Amino acid sequence: MKMKSKTNQIIRLAPAVVIGLAICMSAAMKITGNPEVVSVFAKTGLVWVIRYFGIAELVFVCLFWWRPTMRVGFLLLCCYYGGATAVELATGGFFALPAAILAVIWVSVYLRDPFIFGAADEDNGRQTAFEGVA
């Protein structure tokens, strides 16, 4: 039994909306200089770039949400949260949070566009990433 298209669309978009709103809240706290966030950044010595990180998060989420630039936004968010995970690992922080955010980003992208990971789209005749390569 097929799901209704509206229900299917809601299921596909929900993770992207939820994780995007969480990232926007994080960006707002960085831009406004929330004392708790500043204290976390003080441990890593990155207080001087905290506002730039907040602005970057907003830009990356906007790119991620807009369908024509979703792939670029996905790449930038992966790089950003991969770096955040690395910093947390290097400083002995709580690395599970940026890793979990990154995992939800990957799931949301797969639900929105499985072809980005090389899955065949038989309805449109699109090839996987490696088909047709000599």
Provide a short characterization of the protein structure:
With 134 residues, this protein is an all-alpha fold. It contains five helices and no strands.
* Number of DSSP strand runs: 0
Contiguous runs where pLDDT drops below 50 for at least 5 residues: none
Q: Radius of gyration in whole Å, from Cα?
A: 17 Å
Number of helices: 5
Largest sheet: none
The coarse silhouette is elongated
Share of helix among residues?
A: 55-70%
* Elements, N to C (H/E): HHHHH
> Given the helix and strand composition, which structural class is it?
mainly alpha
Query: What separation lies between the terminal Cα atoms?
Result: 39 Å
Looking at the chains present, what oligomeric state does this protein adopt?
single chain
Tell me the β content. Answer: under 5%
Overall tally of domains: 1
What can you see in these coordinates?
This protein has helices at 5-32, 35-44, 50-65, 70-91, 96-112. The protein has one domain. With 134 residues, it is mostly helical. It has 5 helices and no strands. α1 runs antiparallel to α3. The longest helix has 28 residues, at 5-32.
List keywords for this structure.
134 residues, 0% strand, elongated
Question: Which helices and strands appear, and what pairs or packs with what?
Answer:
Layout: H1 5-32, H2 35-44, H3 50-65, H4 70-91, H5 96-112
Helix pairs in contact: 1-3, 1-5, 3-4, 4-5
